[in-house]
Amino acid sequence: xxxxxxxxxxxxxxxxxxxxxxxxxxxxxxxxxxxxxxxxxxxxxxxxxxxxxxxxxxxxxxxxxxxxxxxxxxxxxxxxxxxxxxxxxxxxxxxxxxxxxxxxxxxxxxxxxxxxxxxxxxxxxxxxxxxxxxxxxxxxxxxxxxxxxxxxxxxxxxxxxxxxxxxxxxxxxx
Length: 174
Known about the structure:
4 strands, alpha+beta, about 25% helix, 5 helices
């Protein structure tokens, strides 16, 4: 047996097997409790309740999804491709309308907004969903915001201001 090989042990788990013993058998060592301190942040930021989404054939894409996120928390959404993560993100960010349910951000119902935009995300495929590849960096940076007064002169886009704004964004994230 080489020094890199692992020992294989078998044992029947019974009702008397403790969580500690079971953990030791699964990972090969004892786990020590993680010491945590109370969060400096408090308060619910995002509340998702009973959100459902169906496709045009009435097949469930999301079925009764509920969760909440407290201030300072990070929620990871993982799963095998095709299990609804992308649909959930699209509903949360407003690019698709939920069939049922409520989504509240800081107590405000974001599903009732005519153009939800309170939540944003970094898409899994930025070339397909996050950028218009034929657009310049400046045009991509203001995409979705091009109608704001900040980027418009009287009749057209204010290219000088857009360029300055874009340069600041690039400098900040470079």
